[in-house]
Structure formats: structure tokens, C-alpha cells
Design a protein that fits this description.
alpha/beta, 4-stranded mixed β-sheet, 10 helices
Amino acid sequence: MGSEVITDEQGLRFRVRDTLFRQLTADSTSRKTTHEEVLILKSPNFLRKYDRVFSSLPVPHVLEFGIAEGGSILYFAQAFPHYKYVGIDLRDPNEALLDHIRRLGLQERVKLYYNVDQSDERAVNDIINSNFGSERIGCIIDDASHMYKPSRLTFEHTFGRVAAGGIYCLEDWSWAHEAGPYQSTQWTDQPALTNLVFELVMLMPSTRGLIDDIFIDFNVAFIKRGGQPPAPIDLTSMIVSRGKSESAELHVVDVSRCSATICARAREVPHLGGRDFERGH
């Protein structure tokens, strides 16, 4: 089924079955999902890139950090109806979104948890255990803070729960290298999320079997879980870097130039079908 459920695309609006979605823009982020429309940060073309991911998940469990106004998780639940979805967000609940879930009969397949920090290991583990038990997760999407430290902690706490062949999706990894406010006013005191991408690249050969593959486009880094048995993950101790500190290895390169190179090469990666995706968050 997948993105075939998207219809009636008109500007920032589109429909998924009988539900009206509106894509948020930079100047409209204060808007909220209502009973009339569901707000979403991702464009239809952005959503379509998940067709390949969701079409081959090894187990039917999806965990999303950062559900915002609920648009993406509500879309996924309708586009891929055989999966169970758990969403976690730091913000307060949106009653209109919860009403949409009830109206669509999704209460058993979509569980939302609010006022939870993505880096709160105990709270996140409790949520995973209560929903999935000892079963593995097919896909984890990190679309939460986009900050390096909490995103790194989230990966360390949860990647071991992903099933072999499952996918961990790190969204908006490239924000520090985009033109606009990120270059002058927004998050200028924060480390680039690109650092985590490079750490994961180094982790792959350092722990053969933990990560099978990494493929990247301009918005998402897709990390495919290998078959190595689950174990505690600590990037600092697990990355092998010739006896040098991890930061020393990272700083021998121009991070912004390497990011541009990765983006350019990503368009040629077979996993992405050579497609040049439209930008969207």
C-alpha cells in the first residue's frame, strides 16, 4: 500500500484516505493539529522515501521519537496498516490528534507517550518493554531534538533493540550545513549532528556485524542493523581509531565539505534507487 494512500495533492495540502493533511512551513510551526486537519512536517515526497524502508521490515514494530503534531505517525499507520507504532515526544498531548486516532480505529496499533525526553533511558526502556516486550523493533525514527548529545544517547540506548535487517533513521542530520538561520542565529552553540553520522560510519568497521549498511540522502541517514547479538552500545569505547581519541579522528576533516560529498554520493547509492529526493522535514 504505502504512499499510494496519498491523494489530492494541492500545494501544502494532501489527503490520506479521508483525512486532510497540511504540511507545516517555517513560518507556521505554531499551528496545531485540529479536528479538521492534521499537521505534518514532511512533504509527500519525503514520506515516499519511506516506502522502501517499510516494505521490508523484519518485524512489524516501529518506534518514532519526535512526533510533533502527529502527522507522520498517523500517515504511517494508514499507509502501512500491518505495523504497530509507538511515538514519543517531549511536548504535551494534543487531544485533536488523539481523537483522530480513535476516529480511525487505530487505538490498538498507535500508542503515544508525551512529556518524555528522548535521552531519558529509563523512561524510554519502560515504554519499549511495555509495548514490545522482548521482541525486536523493525524501525526506529529519530526526528526529535536533532541535537548531537541527546541523539547520540538515543542511538546508544535503542539501536540494540532493532532486529537484524531493521533500520534506524536519523532525520535532519544535515541542519548545520544548510544555508539560512543555522549559519548565523539558530543552534549556533550546538555541535553539528553530522558528528554522529561520522561516528556511526566509524562504528561500522569497528564492530563488524553491528551495522550492515549506512545509506544517506540530504535529510535522513538510514542505518541498517546487522546480525551481531544485542549488547550495550557505547560509541566512545567501541569505535576503533588507531589509539587516537574519537574527536581527533573527526577533526582531521572539514566536516562541512565531507557532508557535501556524502550528500552528492548518496544520490548514486543503489539502496535509494538513484533518486534525487525533494527536500522536506
